[in-house]
Amino acid sequence: MNVGNLGNPGNFGNELPIVPLLENIQRPTATRPRTGLLFLAVVVGHVILISSQVQSRSGVPVLEGVTFGAFARVQQGTSHAFKSVRNVWSNYVDLRGARAENDLLRSRVADLEVRLQEQRALAERSGQLQALLDLRQFVSVPTVAADVISGYVNPGVLTVTIDKGSSDGVQPNMAVLSSEGVVGRVISPVAAHAARVQLLIDHNGPAAAGAMTERTRAGGMVVGKEGDPPLRMEFVSNLADVKTGDVVLTSGADGIYPRGFRIGWVEHSERGDGLSLAITVRPAIDFRSLDEVLVILREARSAIPEGANEPGGPAR
Amino acid sequence: MKTAGVLLALVVALAVQTSLSGLTMTGASMVNLVIVAVVYAALVFGPITGLMAGTAGGLAQDALAGGIVGIGSLSKTIVGFLAGLLGAHFIVAQPLPRFVMFVSASVVHEICYQGLSALVEVRPVRLPYGPVLTQAAINGIVGLTAFFVVERLPGALQRRRARRGRY
Asked: Which of A109, A228, B31, B44 is the most exposed place for a label (fewest CB within 10 A)?
């Protein structure tokens, strides 16, 4: 057989017997791969079919287990991707929500701070009222509680206004106390529902109070002065024993302030120019934060000189 | 025609097989007509037909027998394919080679079946040689008989008709 003439179209004599022979030779090689693939596909199909019905030792079908194992990584990747996207989105949404929540919380905090301040004020006011009540029980004379409704009206004249007046029994030269100590006295004019109170620290008028030291009962007069501390104690003999830190009380000698109420304490004591000691007194109360006071409803005795009701002379 | 014939052969084999199984007291059959039909189709028509016949007959037999569907089918598919391949490469036209093919196919089928069953059920392989060889021999005899009947029956009938016409 001349194989070299297979591709020659002119050699018809050799072509006819060779072509069927070649077809016979090539047919098995052409069909064998298809047969093998078909066999492989059928076998794989059977394996899948059997595996779908068989359970492993853990009770899970083999096909399910194999499928799960094979796709677990894919599921992990997909889940990771979805989680990433979801986290980004949820973070964005949470961020927006956090901003709104932050605004809401800020407003709540502000509201609560206001409420807290209110509660603190109420508690403080309750404490002050309790102290006044205690003072009222301590004082044997009739009293009336009053609120300070305004501060200093005239510069240099240390007076405050209270919300009780003549309709409440308040008259000029009545002593005004607080739970911490002596405040001052009522001065003219007194309205029906308001009155002016000259503070003890007013150095422009006769707001003096008869005083004594608690420890040695050394008597004198406490008056206002310029500078710090704003009180001084006069007319205390050089022979008296007065030391720094001694508590200064009202002596009742002035006819206005009842005896035994605290005015302050000695801050400095030294020998004076004349026969008296030079004593400065730190007030027991903070005159900048007067809120609740108690008016002693007892008329002043005649120890107060005439014309002493006008503090500091003509108003400036 | 070929497909119909193969399917018909499988249906008949299944019907007879189930009838024989019902008749035996132990429930175990000494012959497997389905594997005989599969090997016959594979030797006559080639590996693809043997493969398809093994798949179809095995699935039907598994479905009728109950249990896991696919083990017998896979075994018959392998046997049918291998028988078809061997039949295409070797001359299997004489009774002895055909007998050997049937017996070998039966043994291989049993090995595959028992092996797959053991694999699936997670147990050791149980291969009773006596019953397996007995069934293989009977399968071979039945297969040879089938070949003989199919190949000789038309000629015998034709000669009988001719003889009757002469007289």
From this structure: A228
